[in-house]
């Protein structure tokens, strides 16, 4: 009985020592809502108006043939070359629901269909060691279609969320737990803060599959789109939406990790590398992409260390596109052969390893863990990743 009382008294004290966690999602890793009031649509079956906001990002019902054309026309962005920013299509309003809560980054699908699971296995594991959703597990979703230059408001909100979370959890410094593009988003965020702020509020940055130096996959998406690994989606249709996102330009291979003349796209008439990437956009007849690239390249080629302890986990030894090869006689409108190299299936190895360079650039420790054969998405529920995080949060 006495033992029980002692335990009961001790448990809150132990839990009080837990560092709260803020989940920072990657590209496509947040829910997105839209409200429509259009005067014209691309197809008669498309709805011109909706009464209220509805879930637009990866609602499978909207991704079937024909309906997907309506979807593309609602979710794509339009580049304004005067403001150098993107806007929604006329008559479309969007919002990112659930900032601060964990729900909308645990599940992309509000109905919790298993295909829409994102951070939920990590959150479930954290709950078993004493964490509480919305209190010590928070989420920081953002409009992943946009790059840091158009997400300045987000970084202000994230700073407030870190401070609030710290206070609500007995002044315990916060861990940022990021996936994929959430890694560079967190890096950008941390680089905006002073060292004394980071020392006070941040325990560490834990990154899974961090795309520190972009990926050749972005080069591929501009040419042929991406089916997001789904058998039912058509890459060419998805492309119409994907290429309008400034975040895609931001995820182009970084000049830090790719040599200027390294061939990214090979055709019999011309090769494309970072040194003539403008020609690539021109020959694809997508100069808005070149504009977005120029707007974001300064944010993708910055190796400044975050100035906090880093735990960087990433997969390797999975085929990952390194170059697009067009057979002689074919051109950019054809189907390239994807020449693979090392990576996690989405991000190239050299980009994933970007965090290792900080070892020499900051005093705070950098722990890098490469996990052989762990795919970009599979890392989110891989046993060794779950136990790594469990051990980390249990360290006092
Ligand atoms: C829809 O847009 C029209 C203008 O195109 C406007 O007159 C109308 O008030 C809008 N409706 C709603 C519900 O916002
Ligand atoms: C902006 O785009 C318009 C239409 O595509 C084009 O005519 C114009 O030259 C562009 N302006 C700049 C400053 O790039
Ligand atoms: C967290 O907060 C969100 C939004 O307020 C709510 O929908 C969700 O149910 C909450 N989750 C828990 C576990 O309390
Ligand atoms: C890189 O980021 C740091 C921190 O935000 C900034 O001070 C520096 O000017 C940036 N460097 C470049 C080349 O943009
Ligand atoms: C393109 O690059 C390949 C491989 O680096 C090279 O063999 C070829 O000659 C280049 N083609 C052109 C047109 O420059």
Describe this structure in words.
The chain is of the alpha/beta class and 396 residues long. The chain has a domain at 32-95. It is built from 14 helices and 15 strands. It has a 6-stranded parallel beta sheet. A hairpin with a 4-residue loop joins strand 4 (77-80) and strand 5 (85-88). Helix 2 (67-75) runs parallel beside helix 9, helix 8 (216-224) crosses helix 9 and helix 11 runs antiparallel to helix 12 (287-300). InterPro entries: AB_hydrolase_fold (IPR029058), LACT/PDAT_acylTrfase (IPR003386).
Can I get a quick summary?
By secondary structure, the chain is α/β, with parallel strands linked by helices. Helix content is 33%, strand content 17%. α2 packs parallel to α9, α8 (216-224) packs across α9 and α11 (277-283) packs antiparallel against α12.
The separation of the N and C termini measures 27 Å
The distinct bound ligands, ions and cofactors come out as: 2-acetamido-2-deoxy-beta-D-glucopyranose
Assembly state (oligomeric): single chain
Tally of individual helices: 14
Uncertain ranges = 1-15
Structural class: alpha/beta
How much is the radius of gyration in Å? 22 Å
The total of beta strands comes to 15
Q: What string, H for helix and E for strand, traces the elements in order?
A: HEEEHEEEHHEHEHHEHHHEEHHEEEHEH
Strand order of the largest sheet: 7-1-8-9-12-15
How helix-rich are the residues, as a percent range? 25-40%
| Biggest sheet features | 6 strands, parallel
What is the average per-residue confidence, as pLDDT, rounded to a whole number? 93
The backbone outline, from C-alpha atoms, is: globular
Keywords: Signal
InterPro entries: AB_hydrolase_fold, LACT/PDAT_acylTrfase
Organism: Nicrophorus vespilloides (Boreal carrion beetle)
Protein name: Group XV phospholipase A2-like
